[in-house]
Sequence to fold (135 residues):
Amino acid sequence: MKKIITYGTFDLFHLGHLRILERAKNLGDYLVVAVSSDEFNAIKGKKCVYPFEHRKQIVEAIKYVDEVIREDAWEQKKKDVKKYNIDILVMGADWQGKFDELIELCEVVYLDRTDGISTTQIKHEIKNKKTNMAK
Ligand code: C2G
Fold:
């Protein structure tokens, strides 16, 4: 069984998230997704709309996902790859090269991001709509 892992915040779950999970799963048989905790997002400088528990449940409900774990630190990837017997670590291309040190343990694959959508963009669009409605 070929096991895949990927990491992310997955806030305001959108098509870009769905597509990377689908493509990651298509590289193997079993997909583990490490969802960033609220505390780790603070370290990443990200403020989430949805708390960890909501983001975890949403990702768990995605048909491509077989298991969800917490991501609490940058450094946990090596331990995760060993603990879950991972064959391939997958990340979006915005992380190109950032996790190459793991190549000694597993294959590392960077997949193209989905253009035209991001959590930040969604937040801006909602904010702009609210501003326009207030006028
Ligand atoms: N993604 C994508 N296309 C988008 C937006 C995101 O392919 N339009 C991918 C990202 O490249 C990432 C995954 O979806 O692989 C999750 O994205 P985020 O939730 O923004 O996660 P991030 O903050 O990149 O966290 O240790 C790694 C970090 O936890 C990654």
About this structure: The helical segments are 15-25, 38-44, 52-60, 76-83, 119-134.
